[in-house]
Design goal:
The chain is α+β, with helices and mostly antiparallel strands and 231 residues long. It contains 8 helices and 7 strands, in the order H-H-E-H-H-E-E-H-E-E-H-E-E-H-H. Strand 4 and strand 5 form a beta hairpin. The longest helix is centred in the N-terminal third of the chain and has 35 residues.
Length: 231
């Protein structure tokens, strides 16, 4: 009888130890999975180290199509409202329209705070980006990226950019630039040639051979002057 009791106790002890080991293994596995899949809202937005660390996971978009797909209704335009959207990381090609300038960026903080983003990126600059078809949009620029652009790039430079969409408003999507890379000369030329073709169609209605890119730039500059007060 005594031996049976000892046998039962030993068996229960072994079962308990085995269960504890399985539970610990399961808990460790879940913890590792959570660690390898960070939550954007809990860690905040990631700013690339400019040319050194291009972010993974951004969605490649055509800027002209993206602008067209992120328009708001006339009712929202009339009321001068914004549609706050969960930050979306995108990448695209664009032309630096103007130099980077300091600006108030309260709207960046307000937009990101809606989604509980923390810590918030440091943003005190803005600029204008021209799309391959000549549309001009105002963008906010994270401070590190703003410094890099000011140091290395002049207006009319074709760049590959990474940005978070913050919200949509009367003029389309409002973006926050968080990454920038140079573009190979061949691709830059092709993009500017595309601008030339669209300039020709928009302004002259016929094919021309010279001066199209300059005309588009001048036309876009007029748009910038009209929009300056809204940045």
């Amino acid at each position: 009888m005594y031996k049976k009791v000892i046998f039962i106790l030993v068996s229960l002890l072994l079962i308990f130890c085995a269960s504890a080991y399985i539970w610990q293994t399961y808990s460790n596995t879940i913890a590792q999975q959570k660690a390898s899949t960070p939550n954007q809202h809990s860690i905040g937005l990631t700013v690339s180290k400019v040319d050194l660390s291009w972010q993974q996971g951004s969605k490649a978009v055509d800027l002209d199509s993206y602008i067209a797909n992120n328009q708001v209704s006339q009712n929202i335009k009339d009321k001068k409202q914004r549609v706050m959207l969960e930050p979306e990381l995108i990448r695209f090609h664009g032309i630096l329209q103007t130099a980077v300038n300091s600006t108030k960026a309260d709207l960046v903080t307000d937009s990101l705070a809606v989604w509980g983003i923390s810590p918030l990126p440091e943003v005190a600059f803005s600029t204008y980006i021209r799309s391959p078809q000549g549309q001009v949009i105002a963008v906010y620029v994270e401070n590190t990226v703003a410094s890099h652009i000011s140091s290395y790039y002049q207006p009319e430079t074709v760049l590959e950019l990474q940005a978070y969409r913050l919200y949509n408003y009367a003029k389309g999507p409002r973006l926050l630039l968080v990454g920038v890379k140079p573009v190979e000369q061949e691709l830059a030329l092709a993009i500017k040639t595309g601008i030339a073709s669209n300039t020709d169609a928009d302004i002259n209605g016929t094919d021309t051979k010279d001066g199209e890119s300059t005309q588009r730039s001048a036309k876009a500059s007029q748009v910038v002057e009209q929009e300056t007060t809204s940045l």
